[in-house]
Write a structure and sequence with these properties.
single chain; 286 residues; alpha+beta; Jelly Rolls; six-stranded antiparallel sheet; five-stranded antiparallel sheet; 16 strands; 26% helix; globular
Length: 286
């Protein structure tokens, strides 16, 4: 009876890690949204900057009245409904905010510090200086096999995906070839990519913009790229909305030697904030 029990424990650990990774991706999207709001606010205001308090600033932007312990990190989860029990999830506990919103929470100081550092760095760059403090608690993120999390380096043209932009956050266990992630082991992968766009200074009309995720084997170029996911945006007057994030994700089966890529039809509107554009994947089955 021992092997089935070990298998159950292993599957449970894998499921928990998958949930935590999904949680981190949602937080990164939240970071992008917060950064865009901050940048927009700064561009529209000529007031002098006041003294900045990191955690207070973040809590104000999150608009939360919940007092959490130093080891807790929570995500809004009203979509789960009122009947869900914590035992039905992989979260550590479920609580409610003072305004009645449901919050699903993890206990993990390393995870919380990691996310706060990301949020802090958008307004206080030195906040990333002591990221080594949390590397040990969060080392599993950057030591995963058959996985990558890349940010967009816009110092050259065309911009390039790189694991070297944010130490402790971006990494790769897979080769990067011609701006593509090369697969080493066949399997089922969760893939994701986001491009953040800023249309503010570009005039009254937003052009049609296409974003996709594709794969192709370098020795089978005549077969063309296989399209996995696509998004399009624009083609209308830019009257109110000045920012947009195109996020693609999903589960695909990839064979050894294939190269995964994400492209956007124009780089003219790419936002230059540090965490605004990222591309990654990780292997689901072992």
């Amino acid at each position: 009876m021992s092997p089935p029990q070990e298998c159950h424990v292993k599957n449970g650990n894998n499921s928990r890690k998958a949930l935590v990774i999904s949680f981190i991706l949602n937080v990164l999207l939240l970071c992008v949204f917060i950064i865009l709001l901050v940048l927009r606010g700064n561009s529209q205001s000529n007031k002098e900057q006041t003294e900045w308090t990191p955690n207070k600033h973040i809590l104000q932007k999150m608009d939360t009245n919940v007092i959490l312990t130093e080891d807790d990190i929570c995500l809004s989860c009203d979509e789960l409904g009122d009947s869900v029990n914590v035992n039905d999830t992989l979260y550590d506990f479920i609580t409610k905010s003072s305004c009645g919103g449901k919050l699903c929470c993890f206990k993990g100081r390393g995870l919380k510090m990691f996310i706060l550092k990301i949020l802090d760095s958008s307004n206080h760059p030195s906040a990333m200086d002591d990221i080594a403090v949390i590397k040990d608690d969060f080392r599993w993120w950057s030591t995963r096999t058959n996985a990558a999390h890349l940010f967009l380096n816009q110092s050259g043209f065309p911009p390039a995906w790189t694991p070297d932009t944010v130490p402790g956050v971006s990494f790769t266990d897979l080769p990067i070839v011609d701006n593509r992630i090369q697969i080493k082991e066949e399997g089922v992968y969760y893939v994701y990519a986001i491009f953040s766009l800023d249309f503010g200074p570009r005039g009254p009309v937003i052009p049609q913009i296409y974003h996709n995720i594709t794969s192709q084997h370098p020795l089978l170029k005549n077969t063309g790229q296989q399209l996995h996911f696509m998004n399009k945006y624009g083609g209308f007057s830019n009257r109110r909305q000045t920012q947009h994030s195109s996020f693609l994700s999903g589960i695909v089966h990839l064979r050894r030697g294939f190269e995964l890529a994400t492209q956007i039809s124009t780089y003219s509107f790419i936002d230059h904030a540090k965490y605004s554009n990222f591309f990654g994947l990780f292997k689901l089955n072992t």
